[in-house]
Amino acid sequence: MKILAVDTSSSNACVAILEDDKILMELNNGDERTHSEKLMPMIDEVFKGSSLSLNDIDLIACGLGPGSFTGVRIGIATVKAFVDSKNIAATGVSSLESLAYNLNQDGYICSLIDSGHGNSYAGLFHIVKDECMFKTVESDLTFLNLNNNELADFIQNNKKFSIKNSPIYFVGNATIIYKDLIQNLHFEKNNKIILANESQCVISSISVAKAGYTKYKNGNYGNSNILSPIYLRKSQAELALEQKSIH
How far apart are CA 116 and CA 139, in angstroms? Predict the structure, then answer.
């Protein structure tokens, strides 16, 4: 199966083409201001570099956020147009889940994406290895403040998980920013805390593709209607409007 993966939810816009789990071509653009300009040329380049076209693609995996509100919409709008024009199967992957897949590791993984002022998008995942692939069997997403000890509560008292004394892996740019805070977390079951390295904390279209392929194999795919942004919090514009209405 040939998979096109697109993610524009972060400062790194990324595009990749995989055949099953084999990487054929990958491109990244680290300038968030140019995502709308660079995305289509990047897609064109990965097609040329892999000697493929949109007609060869069996599945498009799209990053749904959370992250940049504008960035998320750029990627989803582009993918929806492709899916509708060629009737290609689509699947959506949260930014937090794709980060968890960066580790190529089973177990309990907490993904953290910084959103400023001590706040973070957080995702908790239980990933297992199924034959040669990894798949998510449990997940929970939220928006929290790292400075208020909300992270420890999210993990330790999460009703969807029973982590016991298993290690917990942390990944994402907020893991780097709040490294000391995370290393000093205390859990009742004395869980070992393992931090990802910096290269693993960047959202990757390869991980979007791999997570999307797993979803496809489990029947979690559809047409363009399956692609909806994941925000987890209100935009600055919405918050400003609320404050204005209060005063």
Answer: 23
